[in-house]
């Protein structure tokens, strides 16, 4: 392959700005020439526009969560828009009576930090762990997934939505 075509191929392979590893994986599926890996790594490292998509420093360490061994032993709950603690408790009683009450609930704060929800957890010996109100990113498992999805969408939008097929 000529050097001109290699240059075009390198630009196209890296147009999603997914970093060295994902770009190398994509290249292995599409093209080959001697020293492809080295040239691609140098190209990605030189391409400073990728910096606009890098994460800022996380302010609080990620909190590791226990992985449940049994169904409903540990659950994670997130914001329910326009739902009161009372309505959520009524729904949970119906679900938990069928599937068992959890030992631990990880959640964001509203409406799970209300005294009514805390009392519900106390009655059923459920340990309620809420994310830090100021640093929601301390909920590591969920926040990492959200961060990855947001980055992919920003990158797709940056390319005028031409590459939404890569988001799956």
From TrEMBL:
Q: What class of enzyme is it?
A: transferase
InterPro entries named in the record? Integrase_cat-core (IPR001584), Integrase_H2C2 (IPR041588), Retrovirus_Pol_polyprotein (IPR050951), RNaseH-like_sf (IPR012337), RNaseH_sf (IPR036397)
**Pfam family name, one:** Integrase_H2C2
Q: Which residues form the Integrase catalytic domain?
A: 30-168
Molecular functions (GO terms): nucleic acid binding; RNA-directed DNA polymerase activity
Q: Tell me its EC number(s), please.
A: 2.7.7.49
BP terms from Gene Ontology: DNA integration
Q: What protein am I looking at?
A: RNA-directed DNA polymerase
Organism of this sequence: Cinara cedri
